[in-house]
């Protein structure tokens, strides 16, 4: 029998995380989140997360620092942050992006506190 379950989430009503992200559709091994018009500011604390992230920038600009390498993200940019990799980011201009995380970031407190070095 085929799987007929479908997950649909409207971003406007999606649950919001502690850092402003909106949690979109989630499955057993992957989930999506939206960063919508995040304002410019200081760099975020350096972190290592217990999940892998793939992202796509929709608007704005940000700098991603990954293991000491700085990458400029802007509309159309894609990126990967491997699980356990030291990273930080700084938003330079109101930033909108969609990210997929595997396993889901919002499950089992993976998104609650950055794992510090």
The main pleated sheet reads as: 6 strands, antiparallel
Q: The CATH topology, please?
A: Jelly Rolls
Helix percentage range: under 10%
Q: Considering the protein shown, what is the CATH homologous superfamily?
A: Jelly Rolls
- Estimate the strand proportion: over 45%
From the alpha-carbon coordinates, what is the Rg to the nearest angstrom? 14 Å
Shape category: globular
SSE pattern: EEEEEE
Architecture (CATH level 2) name: Sandwich
**CATH class, please?**
Mainly Beta
* Alpha-beta content class: mainly beta
- Average pLDDT over all residues: 89
Please indicate the count of domains. 1
Low-pLDDT regions = none
Number of helices: 0
Straight-line N-to-C gap: 46 Å
